[in-house]
Automatic annotation (TrEMBL):
The keyword Transport applies. The chain crosses the membrane at residues 27-49, 69-87, 108-132, 152-173. Its cofactor is heme b. It is a multi-pass membrane protein. It is found in: Cell membrane. Its main location: membrane. Belongs to the cytochrome b561 family. This is Cytochrome B561. GO terms for molecular function: electron transfer activity; heme binding; metal ion binding. It comes from the Bacteria. One of its GO terms (cellular component) is plasma membrane.
Length: 192
């Protein structure tokens, strides 16, 4: 069965769905914002703490909070991936096919980064003598004290962090474009 295009659709646009599509499920909305604020906090703390000199007690404390919060957000990301597979997601609003592809590609890369970044950080921490404590609970180390492997994984962690910043800027810019220029009320579907 085919549906007629929306009377408000612009010529040449892939209408896909009406702009008044239903909202995301409450769990997906809550996870989106918890993860978003967690990642922004992690990026801010991460960028700040790497500039601190070694040996400062505050740096060690920030590193431990960063690791614990990073693992917490990682668990929320895994929960979101499962919830996203199970729960209804509203279709994208009408947009050009290239915009639809750009939105899906950006989201895909965001998910890849949200999985790779904490894994690289965890593995980097596994190759040092300190290991990882998850809110005070020691976690297993998957390696030994190896400066080369530690720096390799921390390098991946850092590179993915910068890529994640760029993707977040792109994601927010796209959402604001839809809200303010296209006026398709895209943000309302993800607001609490």
């Amino acid at each position: 069965m085919t549906t007629a295009p929306s009377p408000h659709a612009k010529p040449g646009l892939d209408t896909g769905a009406d702009a008044r599509a239903p909202r995301y499920a409450g769990l997906l909305i809550a996870l989106h914002w918890l993860i978003a604020f967690g990642i922004i906090g992690l990026l801010a703390v991460g960028l700040y703490m790497v500039g601190l000199p070694k040996g400062l007690p505050v740096k060690a404390a920030l590193i431990n909070v960063h690791k614990s919060l990073g693992l917490t957000v990682f668990l929320l990301v895994l929960l979101r991936i499962v919830a996203r597979a199970v729960l209804h997601r509203p279709p994208l609003p009408p947009m050009r096919p290239w915009q639809r592809a750009a939105a899906r590609t950006t989201q895909g890369f965001l998910y890849v980064c949200m999985v790779v970044m904490p894994l690289a950080g965890y593995l980097g921490s596994s190759f040092n003598r300190y290991g990882i404590r998850f809110w005070g609970i020691p976690l297993p180390r998957w390696g030994w004290d190896d400066a080369h492997l530690r720096e390799l994984f921390y390098g991946v962690h850092q590179a993915v962090g910068y890529l994640l910043i760029a993707l977040i800027v792109l994601h927010v810019a796209g959402a604001l474009k839809h809200q303010w220029l296209d006026r398709d009320n895209l943000l309302a579907r993800m607001l609490p």
